[in-house]
Predict the 3D structure of the following.
Amino acid sequence: MADQGTESILQFAPFQSAVDEGFWHRLSSLKLNKLGIDDSPIPITGFYAPCSHPHVSNHLTLVSESLPSESSEHFRPEIIRGNRNRCPVPGILYNTNTLEGFQSLDKQSLLRAEARKIWEDIRSGKVDEDNSVLLRFIVISFADLKNWSFHYWFAFPALILDPPATLVGLKPAAQWFSVEEAESVTAACNDWRNMCSTTDVPFFLVSISSNSAASIRHLVEFDACRKNGDKVLFGFYDPCHLPNNPGWPLRNYLWYISRRWSLEKVQFFCYRESRGFANLELSLVGEASISNSQDSRNDQNMPNAVGWEQNNRGRKAPRCISLAKTMDPTRLAISAA
Amino acid sequence: GTVERMTSPRTVSAFKEKGVLSINEFILAGDNLVSKCPTWSWESGEPSKRKSYLPQDKQFLMTRNVPCLRRAASIEEEYEAAGGEVLLDNEDNDGWLATHGKPKENKNDEDENLPSMETLEISKKETIQSIPSYFGEEEEEDIPDMAEFEDADNLIENDPATLQTTYLVAQEPDDDNILRTRTYDVSITYDKYYQTPRVWLTGYDESRMLLQPELVLEDVSQDHARKTVTIEDHPHLPGKHASVHPCRHGAVMKKIIDVLMSRGVEPEVDKYLFLFLKFVASVIPTIEYDYTMDFDLGSSSS
């Protein structure tokens, strides 16, 4: 643990997006064959997984299955659960019909509307049933089907704690746990990840009893664990690889924890893997201090939210990808000739 | 293609005799890879491209977001100097070992026609700057003026809890900086004609924008770029992807199996993909996908 006197603001590494080519192909065919000029928001599913390499963060990825299929009845993406490399995250796509429409979208309002859903899910207890709603995201896009180019911009709405949470300490999990605890935590995490029903549940509890035996529990079991006198950490699948910062999912998680259990000190566990298995050298354990003054304040008024992603030039601006090479029939004909 | 449609799938094992896999053996070996190396998953791919002879949920294998810290071209010289990476002790030295580690005198004539120097030049330039991803030079006219949008949007979020990242594009990881590196989605499909697995590469630049398949060739061992690695349509995904052509896979795998058997190891077919991926690592030496094999390759007969 760092010195108690040198508390700094807890800073979160932003989530990064990635879009498979297949996503744009399916969006194009949906647009051409089903949606036409209907520009209603479309429910989509993004996927992420814990960081699995010391040098790269994982991304929130969109694949073709992120979109509903043309034949799907309720027009929702069909999600296959139980894939450890694809934890599903609910998102929403605003695809406009024109570039002007895309540019004139009120991004602050869209972000606020999505953040409100997260805030309400926390208040209503929906998070207790499905904690992936803490990770809700937005994509705005304009699919230019004349030129086969796609303008898009992601936002990962995060509720702001005011004043911000401060960091009491942060270190590799392997240094924070005793040797016995580390062994037990590693085994318990691998079991959790190997179970079909829990492998894609991104938020969980690490409960350690007095005899150093660890178990991974669902969030709703917090009170029971605490009653047992267990040491309890709030764990989450951390997509971030950085040694000194937790990733973005901890933001709304902390907000939820502080609202749900009125805790002022929260011990969190940034779960990371190496080659698909729990790695406590890469995983982090930290302690955040949350000012108790905000609990009552936040209860009635929606907090502010941030979360628009930087583009590939490091600016808060949209990205653009051209797929003319693989989509434009004229070019395909020429290259095939 | 046509040939594939006319060939009936292999159902009898010829793993040891020819180094090839039947469909059932491919699934068996794939299940084992997914269980031992969980960064790999089975995928179902585009519904319209599904192969009826494979289970719907096991069409091909994929591992995502695999880092590639250095261009293969930039480490070729080091490998040559070090005598190369000898994976298995193979006497006749003309099969799958004949990669970057091959002694110079054994190079065949074809190698001299490779545009390796040209590629090397490009890669040296590219590694020190952020790559504007998917926009080829001839496509300049398609690129919208992004600067215009950026000014128009100019969204400001002042938030002390957001980590401000200044990324560094580098060849080597450096503890003091945030490294941005190329990443790959690596997939393995079943090639019905050659009856072997086939590897496909989808590259992303430092900001996770799709790489032109031509730039992917910088991450291929120069002995293989543009020769055994070609750019083709993926059998299950949209778009053009770089792929290691499977025409020699059976022969190479047969050689590896023979070496193992000469040492008294009886290779088991469910370990096929570990051996295969170890061989593929000689083609794409800097793409750090997982094929960890810390268990026996097969049963020892001695």
